[in-house]
């Protein structure tokens, strides 16, 4: 679960494919993560080979049990770790997923950690994993720096919405849900290899879970853990160019271009996440003050914030009161 408490040293993680893909790169895993805006068969087919679905949802304690489906697998033989500290659920979801993908290459640090925790119960494995300094640093690397602290100002503390990551993937012929806050992995249903395979069953499980929330709720995000398409696209392009198929080559070149542009965008976004903008903010405020425009800017900001508060009140968000 991800909330406002960062006392464990693990920071909040954005549900963003560039963040997860960078984490996978640090772990030495040759997979990427993409946004998933639809669970329709055509969208899922376009992302194949697809290994797992990472599901982010708003944590509502009262609905935790009602959202339970499937059966606990108390004898689960695969990799499963509990979440024992706040804000680590994103990395735990990734580790629980890649730990159950057969023959998946990993970097030396992750391989050593997996070997060391082999045979441990989920609670102990979770404690060992979250005590690994290098893993926490990799997790925090793309968390925005805390630019301003309100501690010591005597402001009332308000509870913040908590969000949680879980993962769905195929294991031993069935769709499993691996949730670090649950005692055991959850076995949902078997699937047939023909047609959509495990994704058809996973779609039904996720849609049923979303249906437990109020109608119109939008506090969800879905990410696809998939093979990096660039190597296969580049190999396909070489084959087509060798055969002289210029039309098909042009299509593949366009696909490679889109993937390359996406990586460039991710790199730019991650560079912004790594940068501490306090110096820039200070320089802007100083420039406004020197130009005699700080008071008017402050007044405009207060007016804009009040408008946002009133809008949220109108939408029923009483915590803004």
Topology summary:
Blueprint: H1 17-26, E1 31-35, H2 41-46, E2 50-58, E3 71-72, H3 89-98, H4 108-117, H5 122-130, H6 133-140, E4 163-171, E5 174-178, E6 186-190, H7 198-210, E7 220-227, H8 229-243, H9 246-274, H10 278-290, H11 294-314
Antiparallel strand pairs: 1-7, 2-4, 2-7, 3-6, 4-5, 5-6
Helix pairs in contact: 1-9, 8-9
How would you describe this protein?
By secondary structure, this protein is α+β, with helices and mostly antiparallel strands. Helix content is 45%, strand content 13%. It is built from 11 helices and 7 strands. It has a 7-stranded antiparallel beta sheet with strand order 1-7-2-4-5-6-3, sandwiched between helices. The radius of gyration is 23 Å and the shape is globular. The two termini are 26 Å apart. Residues 317-321 have low confidence and may be disordered.
- Low-confidence runs: 317-321
Strand content: 5-15%
Q: Report the strand count.
A: 7
Shape: globular
Q: State the order of secondary-structure elements, H for helix, E for strand.
A: HEHEEHHHHEEEHEHHHH
Figure out the total of helices: 11
Summed up:
The chain has 321 residues and is α+β, with helices and mostly antiparallel strands.
Keywords:
321 residues, alpha+beta, seven-stranded antiparallel β-sheet, 45% helix, globular, disordered C terminus
